[in-house]
Amino acid sequence: VNKALNSFEDYFTGTKEEHDLILGQLYFFRAWWHFEMMKWLGGLPYVDQEFSASETPQLERLSYLECADKVAEDFSRAASLLPVDWDKTTAGKKTMGHNELRINKITALCYLGKNYLWAASPLMQHGAQTGGARTYDYDAGYASKAADALGEVLQMVESGSTQYALVSFDYEDIYNHKKSKTATNCYSDLFFTTGQAWLQPGSTEAIFRGPSTGWSFTRYNYSRTFGPNALCAQDNKIHQPTANYVEYYGMENGLPLDDPDSGYDPNYPFKGRDPRFYHDIIFDGVQYINGDPGADAAMKYAGLATGGSMRAVSNASRTGYFYQKLVPHTCQKIDQGSADDYGPNPHAYIPYMRLADIYLMYAEACAVKGGPAGKSDKCSLTSIDALNKLRDRVGAGHVSTKFTGNAYMDEVRRERAVELAFEGHRFNDLQRWLLLTEPKYTVKTSAEFIRVEDESFFKDNDPRDARVAEYHQEVILTRDFSAKHYWFPLMRDDTYIFDGFVQNPGWE
Questions:
Q1: Quick one: which H or E segment has residue 132?
Q2: For FRET with 154, which of 35, 235, 271, 292 sits at 20 to 30 Å CA-CA?
Q3: In the predicted structure, residue 339 carries a pLDDT above the cut 70
Q4: Which one is predicted more confidently, 238 or 268?
Q5: What Cα–Cα distance (Å) separates residue 464 from each residue in 148, 278, 284, 310, 320?
Q6: 247-279, pLDDT tens digit by residue?
Q7: How would you class 324 by CB atoms within 10 Å of its CB: exposed for 0-12, middle for 13-18, buried for 19 or more?
Q8: What is the DSSP letter of 287?
């Protein structure tokens, strides 16, 4: 990038539009790569100059905030140079309809907002520490900048002046991810497509994706690892959410499970839950095999109660749950013709950034400014409005107005845990909130209970209505994290290059 920027004006020939398109992409990627490394490593040297192959750089590490300010400068430059939609540029018309993977003004503004929100977050403001006492202590200045950048995007989205929109959550059969007959795109299309000529997932919500030929990995590896090994015949890598994470999925009325008004009943733990629970989570009694199960008849209805047919620790569920948000449960050897064979063209892919995340980050940044009613002057939405947009999309109840102060921020974070579950954001969120080391998050549990209903119940009834007995959770492991784990270690060989490039604390 620096080589290109240094020689760009000397060698460029073309139109003013082409000039700006190239420069905007260069500034974006210089900022993006720094930001992606900073998330894990903290402040770094900001490499904004070209070095010859024979030269040893002598750039000292900046603080996180110093680095974030430089990242912001480059993202801001990129946003000023890039178009909202490449299809509407002269250069972009040459690849009309094939520009969806290109970065644009929206991408740059969203990452600008994310960079500012991360800079505002407790870890970046107060440094690595245990105890969680400062988890609500954000920097209001950086949060305000984040709200403005993200709010500018959301105002354009809300007015319909971008190509981005939240996809629908309209299902005829939510357990099988079967869309309603009137749905043109749906929530599942964000992560997995079938019967669409290998179409890369993301739909109208994907703001930033990498290129993907992931259909081959989908067919042979990815889609074969989301259920019991006896059915998902590939490498024995079983994906299962812990019971305490599944509890973030609250009730359909919008309240968390532990709220006294939620209506949650541990004798009916799967009843009346947030609709995303039924889309994302395989729980006891869900019909897992649609075809003839043959010798696997014991697994036709997910046996996830204690001692059930799918509770083997070595090759099934240790926690009492599977998840199917990213790949439907029909990706298994019996139902494969409808989901993961070559015929239906399966393609699994998780976007780096999608529109729902922008609503969530905006809500968080505005909550720092003014709680539920906090907002940016760049956007008509308040913090709670942004959260309720996501609740409305899935048919869940609005965030209760009884949540204020820190309790409201807890709801913002819970919504983020549910909406972005399993998409690769959770570690960085707990890290920047100074919660990574705290027992609530280091302890992992399983759901233990007795199935009361016999098998015939699940043939004729919705599994969410099943009664269970003695529902409780048991600890299965505890992560041994300390303050040093808030930042990953640098490679030792790198820290030996020169004195100014120091190792992260605790990893010396």
A1: none
A2: 35
A3: no
A4: 268
A5: 42, 9, 9, 18, 15
A6: 999 999 999 999 999 999 999 999 999 999 999
A7: buried
A8: B
The span from the CA of 370 to the CA of 54, in Å, is 52
Structure tokens at 436: 């990574």
What are 77's two structure tokens? Answer: 């430059």
The structure tokens listed for 373 are: 């009613």
Beta bridge partners of 28: none
Q: How many other C-beta atoms lie within 10 A of the C-beta of residue 163?
A: 16
Return mean pLDDT, the chain: 94
For domain 2-120, the question of CATH label 3.90.25.10 is answered with no
Interatomic CA distance for residues 200 and 193, integer angstroms: 7
Strand partners, 447: 473
Paired tokens of 429: 């969120």
Residue predicted with more confidence, 501 or 337: 501
Other CB atoms within 10 Å distance of the CB of residue 267: 13
Q: Which helix (H) or strand (E) holds 438?
A: none
CB 302 within 8 A of CB 282: yes
Domain ranges of the chain: 2-120
For residues 126 and 138, give the distance between their C-alpha atoms in angstroms, rounded to a whole number: 9
Neighbours of 138 (CB within 10 A): 26
Phi, psi dihedrals of residue 208, rounded to the nearest 5°: -145, 125
Secondary structure (3-state) at 301:
strand
- Residues 248 and 254 sit within 8 Å (Cβ to Cβ): no
Percent of the chain whose predicted confidence (pLDDT) is above 70: 97
pTM exceeding 0.85? yes
